[in-house]
Design goal:
Distance between the termini: 9 Å
CATH topology of the largest domain: Rossmann fold
Structural class: mainly alpha
Order of helices and strands: EHHEHHEHHH
Strand order of the largest sheet: 1-2-3
CATH architecture of the largest domain: 3-Layer(aba) Sandwich
CATH class of the largest domain: Alpha Beta
Helix content: 55-70%
């Protein structure tokens, strides 16, 4: 199974100082998935959402933990390709036409980018 991590889950998994029970539970869940042979994938947009906040706060330990997690497994990082961006635009337009917006009309709507990146996975990697 391939699991695409959103920014919230990615932030918990890469938290260098987990104190809260939910963060510890997410870290345990992720470790169990990996031990069972499942692939944890970091889409570029999730990395961006975490990285920008770490950069703003000057959180060097968090940046290092994020980089270490991504580098720990080959092909864990899923780039945001032109194909994924085009597919995201089509998905976004389709759900809007159906009256099912996923975010404010002016929002970047990273969830659609995550969906499109996952949908394009077969275009960029052979899992």
């Amino acid at each position: 199974m391939i699991v695409f991590l959103d920014s919230g889950i990615l932030g918990a998994i890469t938290n260098p100082n987990p104190k809260s029970t939910p963060v510890k539970q997410i870290k345990t869940w992720a470790a169990q998935l990996e031990q069972a042979g499942h692939a944890l994938i970091v889409p570029a947009v999730a990395d961006y959402e975490q990285r920008r906040e770490h950069e703003r706060r000057g959180a060097t330990n968090s940046l290092a933990a994020l980089d270490q997690f991504i580098a720990a497994v080959p092909d864990r990082y899923l780039e945001l390709t032109d194909s994924a961006l085009k597919r995201a635009a089509r998905l976004w337009a389709d759900v809007r036409k159906r009256g099912l917006p996923t975010a404010d009309a002016k929002a970047l709507d990273c969830d659609i980018l995550l969906a499109a990146a996952g949908d394009c996975l077969s275009d960029v990697a052979d899992y």
